[in-house]
Design brief:
The complex is a heterodimer.
Chain A lengths: L1 H33 L6 H19 L6 H31 L8 H22 L4 E2 L19 H23 L1 H11 L1 H6 L4 H27 L1 E2 L3 H16 L4 H21 L5 H15 L14
Chain B lengths: L3 E10 L2 E11 L4 E5 L6 H8 L5 E8 L2 E2 L5 H6 L2 E4 L11 H8 L6 H14 L1 H4 L11 H14 L4 E5 L7 H16 L3 E6 L2 H7 L2 E6 L2 E7 H6 L1 H6 L5
Parallel strand pairs in B: 3-8, 3-9, 6-7, 7-8
Antiparallel strand pairs in B: 1-2, 1-4, 4-5, 9-10
The chains are: A mainly alpha, B alpha/beta.
Chain lengths: 305, 237
């Protein structure tokens, strides 16, 4: 059982890690562009999950055939992505943008406030207890037999996350918007001086981070099958940790950090004990930050005097 | 009508008033030097024209249109290029990407490529460094990149902030050569310089800025021969 058991845990870790990575990207992109830890990001994803649950009911997906189910899942990813992206842009516009030149603590505290507002909206939407998210995908083993279990759910996570990450990388590396985003990250004033509308680029960044979070919320519902109004806090915390571990501001860093944390969580739950998992994850974070304060793939920033 | 006209401009940071009623004009194709000591407000003046530092009172007009209070990117789109103090190229973008961003407002890709080629024609060393990260260039190359980046945007007026600061004399000479050649292309220039001698030699006209006020103005030659300028800025007397 040992090798197979180990591989099974790695698969669980990888899928969980991919999910964490998708959320971590929203933290790291916003931090990279305006230096804000967006504490409301986890709760944004909770609201995305609320919408996903509502849509599953409204579209009657639980009773749909296989083809309609897959179409429905794609539709959910797009709609929840647009919803979270749009909401993220609205929050930037109303809350963070007026504080752009204020001391860093002001937008940070406001983000915590937005997080509470979202959580209360979620409380209205879902009610106080956890809700189960319908199993839309069959949990038969695709590999057959009694060996390693790979289900459609596992594949779904990787099938949605991988294209989104490739798309994001291409966007940032090769497009005019991506170039503008990197320029604003490095020097917003110089970016404005070449004619870039910095506020629009920031809004686009919030939209993209929110869209990825919205996609993550759908996958979360389908994969974990339980959502609740408090899910944003813990998931946000792990994703934020992944972003810091990988090097906050770094897109590949967020992905690496997510996968590392996913694997550590799965392996420590399997081989040590579930109740030690949180402690082990953060102990590893502390050790890495002691030796590499900039994170695994972060850049060492020299403060200019 | 002058191309740029700045009237009674006041701007500053918090309680500090860096510009205290500055008025100046720049005509089409003219090269205007602004000289002054450290902290006189030269950089703030350029930043206020570009809309980076907010204007507290007074007006800035460009080609007959008020640009006071416009956001920076719109001012740039109207044709005011700005190579800021300290070069401020994008250190973790390649030279090519820096130049492409210089033409951010150019929607036509073929035209953008021609503009990049033209700017590299002025500084051939950049052509050899296209794939290199901006931050790995030498100081002189970074200054050339900053100038080229501003030129790719096809400005009608170019604001240059201390382009010779900290550079080797040979490179300074090359940069001043290019600045002198801009006038021939019909690009007006506002040149802020510590190197007052070189700047006044090149300039059609000049202004002396002292603690946020214009205290003297005249043609380049008049200022270069003025006793007060010679004592204070040219290290004579």
């Amino acid at each position: 059982m040992s090798v197979q058991f180990f591989l099974q845990q790695c698969l669980i870790g990888l899928t969980n890690g991919a999910l964490i990575a998708l959320v971590a990207l929203g933290y790291t992109m916003v931090y990279g562009i305006i230096g804000l830890i967006n504490f409301a990001h986890g709760d944004l994803i909770m609201l995305g999950a609320c919408l996903a649950l509502t849509l599953v009911g409204a579209l009657g997906l639980a009773a749909a055939g296989p083809a309609a189910t897959w179409m429905g899942i794609i539709l959910l990813v797009v709609l929840c992505g647009l919803f979270c992206g749009g909401l993220n842009v609205a929050v930037d516009r109303l809350v963070y943008k007026p504080l752009r030149t204020a001391p860093k603590l002001a937008p940070l505290v406001s983000a915590i406030g937005v997080s509470f507002i979202f959580m209360n909206v979620g409380l209205f939407w879902l009610g106080p207890s956890d809700r189960s998210f319908p199993e839309l995908l069959p949990s038969t083993n695709l590999l057959g037999g009694e060996g390693l279990q790979v289900t459609w759910k596992d594949l779904l996570v990787l099938l949605v996350v991988a294209p989104l990450m490739v798309g994001l990388t291409l966007l940032v590396r090769t497009t005019r918007l991506g170039r503008a985003m990197r320029a604003v990250c490095q020097d917003p004033t110089a970016a404005a001086l070449v004619g870039i509308d910095v506020d629009r680029v920031i809004a686009a960044t919030f939209f993209i981070g929110g869209f990825l979070g919205g996609a993550a919320s759908v996958i979360y519902g389908l994969y974990i099958n339980t959502i609740g109004f408090q899910m944003g806090f813990q998931n946000g915390l792990y994703a934020f940790t992944a972003a810091v571990l990988g090097g906050i501001g770094s897109i590949p860093g967020a992905v690496l950090g997510g996968v590392v944390i996913g694997l550590v969580r799965a392996l420590s739950s399997a081989y040590v004990s579930e109740r030690w998992t949180g402690g082990i994850v953060f102990a590893i974070l502390i050790v890495i930050l002691v030796f590499r304060p900039e994170g695994l793939l972060g850049k060492r920033v020299k403060e200019k005097v | 009508m002058p191309m740029l006209s700045v009237r009674e401009l006041e701007a500053g940071y918090g309680p500090i008033r860096a510009l205290d009623g500055v008025s100046l004009e720049v005509d089409e194709g003219e090269l205007v030097a602004i000289i002054g000591a450290n902290g006189a407000g030269k950089t703030t003046l350029l930043m206020a024209i570009s809309g980076v530092v907010p204007v507290r009172s007074g007006t800035v007009e460009f080609r007959g249109q008020s640009i006071t209070g416009l956001p920076t990117h719109e001012i740039v789109r109207l044709g005011i290029g700005h190579a800021p103090e300290g070069r401020r190229i994008f250190p973790r973008l390649s030279v090519r990407e820096n130049l492409q961003l210089g033409g951010f407002t150019q929607p036509d890709r073929a035209q953008l490529q021609r503009d990049i080629d033209e700017a590299c024609g002025l500084f051939p060393v950049l052509g050899d460094r296209m794939a290199q990260m901006g931050g790995t260039l030498s100081g002189g190359e970074q200054q050339m990149l900053a100038l080229a980046r501003a030129l790719v945007g096809r400005p009608k007026l170019l604001l240059l902030d201390e382009p010779s600061l900290g550079l080797a004399p040979l490179i300074v000479a090359r940069i001043f050569e290019v600045i002198a050649a801009l006038a021939a292309r019909g690009i007006a220039v506002v040149l802020v310089e510590q190197n007052a001698r070189a700047a006044l030699k090149l300039a059609d006209r000049g202004y002396v800025l002292e603690t946020g006020r214009i205290t003297l103005s005249g043609t380049g030659a008049q200022l270069a021969n003025d006793r007060r300028v010679r004592e204070a800025y040219l290290g004579e007397g």
